[in-house]
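Hi C.,

You asked whether I'd gotten around to modeling the 250-residue construct. I have! Everything is below, sequence then structure, no commentary in between.
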Amino acid sequence: MGRWCLAMVLCLAWLAPVQAAESISRPQMVISQMDDDPILSVKAFHIMREAYRRLGIELRPDLLPRERALMSADSGETDGDLIRAAGIDARYINLVPVPEPVVTFDAVGFTTGLKFTVDGWNSLRPYSLCIMRGMKLAEQGTEGMQRLIANTTDQAILMLSAGRCQVAVLGHQVWLDIERLHAGPMRALDPPVASVPLYHYLHRRHADLAPRLAETLRQMRDDGTSATLLVDERDRAIDAARRRNSLPEQ
């Protein structure tokens, strides 16, 4: 028994530095991720996790409110921000974009019955709007318009349902939230107000990773990996919720 115990101690002592070396060889990075977007941001995280894995890095999310997520990435509290529209680095100067889109986001106008022709952001100007705090695309696109700022997706939906605004600018995935909140029926205006590519951002201390991640994302797009990771069973649930909670076409 004594010899067996001694052998185990020696084995564990030998394994410890090996495991430590493996940990050192696989560095980790923590990325800010919006905590109120369980569909698109989760898909984007799967894509970016695979891109980092191919570079020998383990990616972990830090789920935060939209604005707080950006501030944490810009301050260096996290290593970057998962996905944002192009150009946010003009304001958040410590963030460096990876010059290859991760996913595409459709900004959709939702109403409780109002119907009009959507032709870009300026077509929303005659109406009162609800937009999300931290959704920079909508904040910039509706600047100077009559608008209320919601802190969460649920709040924006309930504000629209209560008549506090005529149009809420959200993503199509909110049909699940509309159903959960019993806020329907509603109408999603077509076409989207804007359809934009979203990019991954790094804190400037990791700027050297940007071109390597861009090339990896291009490889993943070309070999079909990104398309595979974008397939999600929740898409069918969103379509079903849309059918159940949509107003009939006039």
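If it helps when you're writing up: Strands lie at 28-34, 58-64, 80-85, 95-97, 103-111, 129-132, 147-150, 167-170, 187-188, 194-203.

Thanks,
B.
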